[in-house]
Amino acid sequence: MGIKILWEDRDKTVMRQVYEGRWSVDDFRQVISTTHKLLNGLPHTVDIIMDATLSDGTPSNILAAMRYAEQQVTPNQGRVIVIGADLFMQEMLAVAKRIAPRATGNTTLVDTLEDARVLVGQTKFIPA
What we know:
Elements: E1 2-7, E2 14-21, H1 25-40, E3 46-55, H2 66-71, E4 77-83, H3 87-99, H4 101-104, E5 107-110, H5 113-119
Parallel strand pairs: 2-3, 3-4, 4-5
Antiparallel strand pairs: 1-2
């Protein structure tokens, strides 16, 4: 399936990346590149919600993309909130915090989209 990107609000202050089914490191690199392009032109901080609730698991070679992720962080990237991380993803995030601290240092794990929205201060979802 892959990964899709959508905005949680019209002001583009919260981006949601939805990880569905099987996705690859190449899919992840592509979403990093697209995210960089979308955030780069915005004058405000953007929080990112990584929604893995529909994911079939994290690719075993995900750490191979973390240096690239580190290089692509924009100055306006805010919090990264991960929903539904499986145990392997949680373990990889712990390692990634050491090799890609700017990309993963401000990461929080939550169980639901509602929890993520509370963390970013978004009490009402407004479709873009």
